[in-house]
Please model this.
Amino acid sequence: MSDLRELYQEMILDHGRAPRNLRAIEDADHTAEGFNPLCGDRVKLYLRVAGGVVVDAGFEGSGCAISTASASMLTEVVVGKRVEEVDELRRRFRGLVTGEVRDASRLEELGKLAVFSGVCAFPNRIKCASLVWHALESALHSEAGAAPAVSTE
Model:
């Protein structure tokens, strides 16, 4: 199990050091900002949705390795998914980081997002991993073009 944990830590560090899709999307039609006042993590999520499918995703912001890695991986996994699928993924991710999801088969359903399974052991880090996912919910379910702010207080 320690080999798996080391692999998970390495993947989080990789995404934290070299985040994917760290960019604004000029023609984004869904955006939201997130802020964690407890640690200072900030994120702005950009999405472009066409025909009910996320066709592009990017983010800007600053934060710890867990927060940055979560944003990076989110932008990779949501592209190509229908909004309904993204909502289900968001609910599953929340269950993962809060420790509600522990069943191995349910972890497999999350694919590479399962690297965040250890976060539930560190309650202060749950908000770091969840920040961009709260922004995702706001971005998808607010009026197109709006940039609502979310906080993880």
